[in-house]
Every structure is written in structure tokens, then in C-alpha cells.
Amino acid sequence: MRRRPAEYRRPVRRRLSQWILALLGMFVIAGLVLFVFHHNHHEDQVKQPMMGENATKEPLNHEGLNFTKEILSASSFSRQLAEQMTLAKAYVIIAKEHNNLHLAWELSNKIRSCQLLLSKAAKRGESITVEEAEPVISSLSYLIFKAQDAHYDISTTIMTMKSHIQALEERTNAATVQSTLFGQLVAEALPKSLHCLKVKLTNDWLKQLPLQNHVEEKRNSPRVIDNNLYHFCIFSDNVLATSVVVNSTISNADHPKQLVFHIVTNGISYGSMQVWFLTNDFKGATVEVQNIEEFTWLNASYAHVIKRLLDQDSRAYYFGAYQDMKVEPKLRNPKHMSLLNHLRFYIPEVYPLLEKVVFLDDDVVVQKDLTRLFSLDLHGNVNGAVETCLEAFHRYYKYINFSNPVISSKFDPQACGWAFGMNVFDLIAWRKENVTARYHYWQEQNGDQMLWKLGTLPPALLAFYGLTETLDRRWHVLGLGYDMNIDERLIDSAAVIHFNGNMKPWLKLAIGRYKPLWERYINQSHPYYQDCVIS
């Protein structure tokens, strides 16, 4: 029952006096007044809806009741029910652990009654009445007392709940790790549609000898070494992603015929990449495709990354079937050991006659004419890049271990990081500064992986330290592969947008808001694309 309001509550008296009879009379009168008040108030509550029904037949408006406030109110029946239900749920768990299944069933049944009553009150937008609440509260209170009488005291309850909370935390952590691992696996895997496309193109390459002969004729084209043209290099085994980079660059160029694209891929993707770029129209631009397996100079005696690839422990770490779940999944991403991924440190060797190139990752989309990059003054620096230190976690100390005295003596931990994915490289300055040798030195120093853990950016930050020219942020906007809240105006103003992160635009994981920016540059009329992707 509802407690009597405080102003009518009987005052506490510590001694009896001769006035006790007078006080009792006063309380009798007060009781009669309260009875009359409650009786009249109840009649008003009954008459008001009846008058509404007979007079206007207007629908009831329950918008005035805020059920959230109602359930938080200390004096409401909703609050009492919610609190009793919470306590009852704890006793259900304890009863089950003590094999008292009948009590657990009774408590569960009453909990369902509470939930039903609360949901009805919320649906109709009215407070729970005394008549509705009293039987549920009484019966549930009886069961809670029954549980307490069964020696389920408060200390037992606390210990039981602590153990359950700990178990739930462990399950949550395990689920988080598993979810991250599955997400990483999806991001690394080649979708079935892209595999289908690659198989069909490779089949054409093997069957159509004229295509192979055409490649041999184009191999020695003077355009691929003409420094009066604009040269772009892309290292990838993803045919569709590479085609988007090329298409978007050409579509936004003022003079497409002056563009030359240098694509390097692996032996598996070489045939499909050749067929795609031989059989599609690129507005007069030159596209050269090379096979990294033909670079005989890129061997274990020269490149540290190849030494690690040949090492059995490294292969087991990155490619093994049985992997330690305690290690963060992204640390085991095989792309960190990919030759194509590390080829960016050998650009002067791949193109010994070129003077300046723009490097593009295969997960970017070009939205502006990039030829202006070639006329930028890098002030003697090797690398032109957009800095990423607007956020604190993109400083050098976040990528590299500054507890190592060799690192701390040579580098500023607060120095700005910068982004790979759209970079202008002055290859003359690169050769002069011997940046590749710097890269080799730091790779040797990191043989035990104590300077940095993963990726190509940490060694690049070391190798290009003091040799990087900062570009305007609008040249390269990052985050479309993980950040769902990038400002639309920033995206529209960007020359290059970068889908860095796991949510690549060719995956089902892609962020739907950004995916059309990538899809618009696919040749969707190609029969193989229609067969493999659309259908």
C-alpha cells in the first residue's frame, strides 16, 4: 500500500503525557479529513474520463506522460516494480545455481508479469494504478522473502553477482577479439565476385596470344620513360581497385593523353591485369603493367623484407594456420610482409630513368586534376605528403618505440606523421639522399620488431625524416575506410579520397555513404563485370 504523506504522519513522542487523549482525538479528526479527501479525489478521476467519452468522443492524448521520468520517480509503482524485478532476476540466477528450479520458475513467472504490466503502462501512456501494482508487488515480495529464507542472503547475492559479472566480462572480451579477427579476415579476403573477374580475365590472357604479342610491342614505348609526361605508379594485385584509380585519375585530368600509369602486380594477377587494361579505353593515356617476379634485382641479398619472407618463423607468424589469439589480429595481416606493399621503397630502382612520380594506393579515388602536383616546389625534399598530426595519435611516438636510445637520439617524438597513399616523389633527390639505403638500415635495426610492430609507415617515417614537404590537406583526405562522420565539404574539396581501413569499397563491409564515390568509376558495362559482380 502507498505510504501516508509525511505531513499526516504521526509525530514520534518519547514520553506519555496527560494530553494523550486530546492528541488521539486530533488524529481521529485528521483521519476523517483524509478519508473525505481521498474519496473525492477518486471520484474526480473516475468522472473525468466518463465526461470525455460522453461529450466529445475525442481520442485520449497520452503525450503528457514521460514514462522514463515515471520509472525513475521514487514514488511511482513503475519504479518499485523495476527494482523488485532486478532483485528477482538476481535470485533466479542464485536459485538455479542451488538447483532450486521451482523457485527460479516462480520468480521468472512473476518477472514476466512485471514486464507485461510495465509494457502495457508504457503503451497506453498512463501510470500504473494501485489495483494493478498491488497484487504483482505483493506476490513478488513474497517470493523474494522466500528466497531470502532459503539462505540466499545479501553476501551470497553479492558474491554470486560478482562472479557472473567477471564471467560476462571475459565472454565480452573474447567476443570482441573474435569479432575483430573475423573483421580482419573479411577485410583481407578477396570477394568471390573479384575472384571470378580475375579468373575470366586470366583465361582470356592464356587463350589469346595476340594480346600477349601486343604487350611485347608496347613494352619499349618511349612514353614510359618520357619525363615531359606525368607519371603515376600503382602497386596492386586487385584488378578492379586499380582500374578505379586509373579511371578516376583520367576522368578528372585536363589532358588525359599526357598521363602514364605504371602498374606493378604479382605473377598470379599479371595476366588479368594486362587483359583489363588492353581491352578497355583510357582516353589515350598510357598504361604499363609489370610483373614483380621479373625484378631479378629484388632478391634476399638486397631486400630485407624478402629475407623475412623466407624465414620459417616469420612465415608461421603471418601465414600459419594456428595463431595465438592474444596477438592483435591486425599485427598478423600478411600485407605487412607483401612485396607489393614494400615496393614503394624501391621506386627509383623500378623506374631508373624517371625524375618525378606520383604514388597512388589502390584504395584511393581521384577527384581533381593531379598534374599540378608535378609543378609543386618540394624545396629539395624527396617526399611530398599530407601531414596527419591534427590528431595526437599521429605523432612519431605513437608509431615508433622511443625507449630505444638509437631512436630517441635521432628523432623528435612530437614530429608530425604523414600519410602514404598519395605522395609526390622527387626521384632525383631520392637517389641523392639514398633513401632506400636508410630504409634498409632501419629494417635491419628492427630485426626483433622492437622499434615498431607492423606496416610500411613506421620505417617510412624514419627513412624520410627531414625529407618530407607538407602538402595542403585537401590534396589527400583519409579515413573513408573506417570513419563514418567525415565532413561532406571536406570530401568534396579533396583531390584524392582514401579508403584506408578495413571497410574497403569493394567489400560488403564498405560504408554505404562513401561507396558511390568509388563505384562511379567502374566500367559497369564490361561483360565480365556484369557476369561476376552484378549478377
From TrEMBL:
Pathway: Glycan metabolism; pectin biosynthesis. GO terms for molecular function: polygalacturonate 4-alpha-galacturonosyltransferase activity. The keyword Calcium does not apply. It is found in: Golgi apparatus membrane. Its EC number is 2.4.1.-. Its main location: Golgi. InterPro entries: GAUT (IPR029993), Glyco_trans_8 (IPR002495), Nucleotide-diphossugar_trans (IPR029044). It is a single-pass type II membrane protein. It is an enzyme of class 2 (transferase). Keywords: Cell wall biogenesis/degradation, Glycoprotein, Glycosyltransferase, Golgi apparatus, Membrane, Signal-anchor, Transferase, Transmembrane, Transmembrane helix. Gene3D superfamilies: Spore Coat Polysaccharide Biosynthesis Protein SpsA, Chain A. The keyword Transmembrane applies. The chain crosses the membrane at residues 20-38. One of its GO terms (biological process) is pectin biosynthetic process. GO terms for cellular component: Golgi membrane. Belongs to the glycosyltransferase 8 family. This is Hexosyltransferase.
